[in-house]
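Researcher: Next entry in the queue.
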Amino acid sequence: MDIDVRGPRFGAAVTTVVLAAVLITGSAWLLAWQVLAFALGAAGGVARAPYGWLFRKAVRPRLGPPTEFEAPEPPQFAQAVGLVFAAVGLIGYTAGPQWLGLAATGCALAAAFLNAAFGYCLGCEMYLVARRVAVRAK
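Model: Structure for this entry, 138 residues:
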């Protein structure tokens, strides 16, 4: 079942704020929360992620009906990519080196910001490229 394109973009906006707060405060706990949010989105899809739930319950009812839909697989893959970067960032913040935490979190922040501000999902594009490569390899 296709999903409302506004949901993942809302999630990316919340993620942008969370990751910016991590970079400003250096909070490993806040980054751990984001790792959990990414893990839930990667495992169950963006609709089952915390920010997807917040979108469905608090934001979508205040908006008009959706006019655009997308397949759930590319955003779910993007959550997995975000999970990898956030997990590496968490390792950097908790076990060191600190620069690893900053760099990985910064990369995740950049990707989330691109989606939130411009609707360009890097993880979704990676998914599409991987699918094309897999089809050609057959």
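Model: The mean pLDDT is 96.
Researcher: Noted, moving on.
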